[in-house]
């Protein structure tokens, strides 16, 4: 493991990675706390904030397609929509829709995008595999 590529990366990438690390940690926490409790709500708000930060920071990260956006930015926009839907659902008392939106967002954003973060040529690939 070599952290140098991350330290040499731009601020947007550093912010993106820090928010992702926090989101992954919060995911483990949110999956262990009882649903509907104050702890679940507080951790959930922090998790939504971190995912929004991940998505927003991604719009300052280009490079897969030269200096333009790539298909992965569609996932960022989709994730922001999913987060919005989940928050609206829980505020409306529709727990089933909230649960579905959150699980879909968790799988798509963290697992799906996380997989692509470690592809050859990406910063996290250089950090982990040298």
Summary, kept brief:
The chain contains six helices and no strands. Helix 4 packs antiparallel against helix 5. The chain has 130 residues and is mostly helical.
Q: Note the overall shape.
A: globular
Average pLDDT: 91
Order of helices and strands: HHHHHH
Radius of gyration: 15 Å
The tally of strands reads 0
Secondary structure: helix percent: over 70%
Q: Number of helical runs?
A: 6
Largest sheet: none
Structurally, how many domains make up the residues? 1
How would you characterize this protein structure?
The protein is mainly alpha-helical and 130 residues long. It has one domain. It contains 6 helices and no strands. The chain has helices at 4-8, 11-30, 38-58, 72-91, 95-117, 123-129. Helix 4 packs antiparallel against helix 5 (95-117). The protein starts with a helix and ends with a helix. The model has no long low-confidence stretch (mean pLDDT 91).
């Amino acid at each position: 493991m070599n952290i140098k590529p991350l330290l040499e990366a731009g601020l947007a990438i550093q912010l993106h990675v820090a928010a992702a690390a926090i989101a992954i940690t919060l995911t483990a926490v949110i999956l262990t706390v009882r649903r509907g409790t104050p702890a679940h709500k507080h951790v959930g708000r922090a998790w939504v904030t971190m995912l929004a930060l991940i998505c927003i920071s991604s719009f300052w990260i280009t490079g897969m397609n030269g200096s333009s956006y790539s298909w992965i930015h569609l996932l960022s926009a989709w994730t922001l929509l999913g987060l919005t839907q989940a928050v609206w659902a829980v505020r409306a008392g529709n727990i089933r829709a909230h649960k579905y939106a959150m699980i879909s967002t968790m799988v798509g954003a963290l697992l799906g995008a996380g997989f692509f973060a470690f592809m050859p040529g990406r910063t996290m690939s250089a950090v982990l595999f040298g």
